[in-house]
Amino acid sequence: MGIRVRAIIIGVSLMIGAGLLVVSGGMNPALPAAIQQEDKAAGNPVEDQAEIDPKAKIDLNLKPNEAGKIMVLMYHNLGKEESEWVRTPANFRKDLSVLYEKGYRPISLSDYITGHITTEPGYAPVVLTFDDGNLNNFEYLENGLISEDCAVGILVDFHEKHQDFPLEATFFLTGERPFKQAGLESQKLNFIIDKGMDIGNHTKDHPILDKASGDEIQAQIGAQAQYLQTMMNRDDYVINTLALPFGTRPKDQVLTRYLAAGTFQGVPYNNMAVLNVGWNPGYSPYDKRFDRLVIPRIRASEMKVDNVGLYNYLDYFDRNPGERFISDGAEGVITVPEGKKDFLADFSGQEVYAY
Questions:
Q1: What phi, psi does 247 have (nearest 5°)?
Q2: Ordered structural domains, the chain, with CATH
Q3: Which of 24, 58, 212, 296 is least enclosed, having the fewest CB within 10 Å?
Q4: In whole angstroms, what is the distance from residue 44 CA to residue 63 CA?
Q5: Contact assessment for residue 140 and residue 133, using Cβ atoms and an 8 Å cutoff
Q6: What's the whole-model pTM score?
Q7: CA 304, CA 85: separation in Å to the nearest integer?
């Protein structure tokens, strides 16, 4: 997945004395009240408090909690029969509908790991990922249309019917024929990124990496990154996220550095995120415990999930709403309940608003 560069507008807070003074009625707390009244009477514009302090726009009744956990969902295949690694098209549509109704809204993996979360206030971000890049993820029919039962077709259709459900997902691809339709590889990859979704690395041969050497790890990651890069029409798009095959990591801890960065045939690669297979929600990117190189995922299935699948965690967050990330909708501010403040790291100079 290429990291899309986005500007983050940092709100400037106006502080008076030891604390913030919030004034209603559009008054500028930097000016004496009498002067402001004269300005208003004379028809002169008076700055609105919400334009000065982004915290003034935050609705605390929505109980924002940007220290809460975020689900990164892991899908593999869509097919006619439900199984451990296969979701039927009907059940995938059900998943999207349930997420939508429960107030979850997709964000890109890049926005998650960089903490650039602009989810609407009161809603919870969720990250959608697909591994392997099989035909059922993205299929063109003979008439040139996208199959309505493949993952891309379902995602596009759901977004068109629910414009407030962003079209965000990352497809982690392995091998030399992503999505398994010869001659259409580049067309498919560019369709995905043009739509705002993303492509990630799933290694060249999908090996078990626990016993691989440093050279083998770099070859598996670097070769696939280079191959996928050749099919991109955009020079600014970089393959820089990795989903681990089988969730395996090198047993030699010294070699784990090659999951994040390395070189193959003289060409370097740098992964901004490394994703595991399971089994729990990820920490908020603002949490001290967040590690972009060890991101857990949740199996998006209802079979053999050992009580740690998508619907188990949907139920968990319903019963424990204080554990779920809820957006404040304000850029430059990290809003958390008072008791969650100590979990936060010093994040890019953003202001912490504890209530």
A1: 70, 15
A2: 15-57 (no CATH), 66-354 (3.20.20.370)
A3: 24
A4: 36
A5: no
A6: 0.86
A7: 9
